[in-house]
Amino acid sequence: MSRGRILSGMRPTGRLHLGNYVGALENWVRLQNEGWQNFHMVADWHMLTTGYEDTSRIQSDTWDMVLDWLGAGIDPERSVIFVQSQVKQHAELHLLFSMLVSKARLERIPTLKEQIRDLHLDEQTISYGHLGYSVLQAADILLYKATHVPVGEDQVPHVELTREIARRFNFVYCQDREPVFPEPEAQLTAFARLRGLDGSRMSKSVGNTILLSDGPEDILARVKQAYTDPKKIRATDPGRPEADPNDGHGGCVVWEYHRKFNPAGAEEIARQCRAGELACVPDKKHLAQILADALAPIRERRARYAKDPGLVRDIVEAGNRRAREVAEATMEQVREAMNLEPGKAEVPGAAPHGERGR
Ligand code: TRP
After folding, report:
1. Which of 49, 185, 208, 281 could cross-link to 198 by cystine, CB 3.0-4.6 Å?
2. pTM of the shown model
3. What count of other Cβ atoms lies within 10 Å of the Cβ of residue 299?
């Protein structure tokens, strides 16, 4: 028995990092294994909203990301993996939905405001497509009639808009018929965002990440650079795993990673650190080992798929076909509800049914 359907997407950013795993992928795999019907989309059209000029990396970034999904345990026998641009129904539904949303409503979306700030964009020159980002996302979700959308906190406003659009569509076009769309719910990831190794937001462009495909040496080199309590110099200095806002100390990143990847040992490590019984260097080596062990199965599975590009291509093509089937079934209901099926309508003045041999 299926518990419901989830749709989630990621923009193709190439190789994924630990934050993508903890914040999303790990959750996708768990849901898949619990019997949800998973649809996972490479959001390549979404990528264009903030980077339409240079498209040279879209293909390689797509394959790198799909390999990480497969490596993390997305099982193509149970989950559908597909590419947004290969399912044209997304464009059609996006267009129809764009009539149901006001420009002012889109301008209020906090995610858009943050992007304008973070990417130093000018509100006046923001593109029509970028403004409509979340309408496209609503189309992504509702095409598959997803009941749940596993996302991070930052995406909740998009799911909220999706619910409004579903409600609006059902109200406007389904008065005398079954509603076409469910109102999907955001399903927040249990573990809060993992910070980057330097303590700031984890991001590939900052270079403060560990990639899922990194080997043990890379991981050790990365962890060695991690931010710890700056006041703990010697092994015998008492350290502060937790943040101390009075002093600008953001909290030890190594400790944060222990809590996530070494939950059973984390408390004892914090105790030793506070007591001045633990030096940072051996503790970092310890963490690097834990991370390398945790990532080994992912890296190995990824490598097996990477050796068989034909298989990966087949997986995505089969996913695209399955996605198209589901999406087209939804679009047939949408077009019917909106009277957008001229082929089925009566031509005025034409002979009554049956006499024209149709
Ligand atoms: N906006 C999402 C992000 O930036 C990606 C995305 C596109 C998405 N379409 C989606 C996520 C549909 C969930 C559902 O991460």
Report:
1. 208
2. 0.91
3. 18
